[in-house]
């Protein structure tokens, strides 16, 4: 504990790092403040009451499930009809589109290889595409909140102007687009002048914003009449910490492929010597190279089966796809995640390029010939580690549905026991801690969670 406190003092003593952290916290505060500003045409107090009624009455068999899932990434702004209701998600969608198009469009492939100037052009393309995505999502969002409130008698009191008029639609769409662009700008400023990846941090903040309320609801339910008591809360916390540990393992697990640099080895008199002391002598292939992208892709497609209910609302099987905690939803969800994990890993890990780079730099994998044989070997290893990684990721994604009912009593709290939310929180935290460690180690300080490791190394 003393070492951790000393590390915090070291962080505060570095002026540059301190200013970056304070700037990041300031931008987060601005973002959170903006999420509580409602659209000018919306009566926020009435909207809150209508949303609460919607959740309490089941929300078309979704309850807090699908609505909570969409709202969690915006810190509640989606459910509060805020100017930041679309949040940073249009930018994420645009980034995914540009990344996938880069696999097929030669012009984008060229930009990816042009260094800093190419990245700047790609960023500009992503920004313009973000606005296009917003222009599609904003009307869809306004349509969803207006149709959602139609069954309630106080529907007309939720708006200051007629919801079907141009005075409602035009200003609301412009403000929603501006709010999303503002969130994108905040994220980029955090990346440039703050600490960590700004876009990812804003998503994590939106997710964490709902954690205290979800925990309080779970505590009240468990300690109230019919609940299991405070001991169950303790069990839930311990299990959640175990799940977080598994998420960390999934995020950092790699398969190390040893490599040798033949030309440098021969210069020292033998290919079996370990040269370049302190340099990385292996290729790290991540067990979960796709990250959370397969879950995001799968969630985007999971809205399609739910539309089948509108065709035949008497079919209970199709109706299950509207509930994110049903077995129908989660079986299909898990299968899609496994498929997308293989797909995304295949298009983002260029084994042929890796093999060519090794050959060009005089590197080789022991007992494997350079060139095509090396590419085939890397592809085979990648396929073998991706299978268990994809299964683990699928289990992680459906874990909220597994714990809901037998361990966790409230849906909002169950969503934090896995899925995209927890993986994003763990991934962003690890990335931010790594950046802080870099600053500390450059100034000859032990990094966060590095003190014990350093002492153990010195003793050995």
Automatic annotation (TrEMBL):
Family in the record: Belongs to the SecY/SEC61-alpha family.
Main location per the UniProt record: membrane
Ranges annotated as spanning the membrane: 21-42, 88-108, 128-154, 166-186, 198-216, 228-254, 287-307, 327-351, 385-407, 413-433
Protein source organism: Chryseobacterium lacus
Subunit-structure text: Component of the Sec protein translocase complex. Heterotrimer consisting of SecY, SecE and SecG subunits. The heterotrimers can form oligomers, although 1 heterotrimer is thought to be able to translocate proteins. Interacts with the ribosome. Interacts with SecDF, and other proteins may be involved. Interacts with SecA.
Lineage of source species: Bacteria, Pseudomonadati, Bacteroidota, Flavobacteriia, Flavobacteriales
Record localization: Cell membrane; Membrane
Annotated Pfam families: SecY
NCBIfam families cross-referenced by the UniProt entry: 3a0501s007
Gene3D superfamilies xrefs: SecY subunit domain
Name this protein carries in UniProt: Protein translocase subunit SecY
GO cellular component, one term: plasma membrane
Alphabetical GO biological process terms: intracellular protein transmembrane transport; protein targeting; protein transport by the Sec complex
UniProt keyword Chloroplast present: no
UniProt cross-references to InterPro entries, sorted A to Z: SecY, SecY/SEC61-alpha, SecY_CS, SecY_dom_sf
Keywords annotated in UniProt: Cell membrane, Membrane, Protein transport, Translocation, Transmembrane, Transmembrane helix, Transport
Domain of life of the native organism: Bacteria
Role noted for this protein: The central subunit of the protein translocation channel SecYEG. Consists of two halves formed by TMs 1-5 and 6-10. These two domains form a lateral gate at the front which open onto the bilayer between TMs 2 and 7, and are clamped together by SecE at the back. The channel is closed by both a pore ring composed of hydrophobic SecY resides and a short helix (helix 2A) on the extracellular side of the membrane which forms a plug. The plug probably moves laterally to allow the channel to open. The ring and the pore may move independently.
Bilayer topology annotation: Multi-pass membrane protein
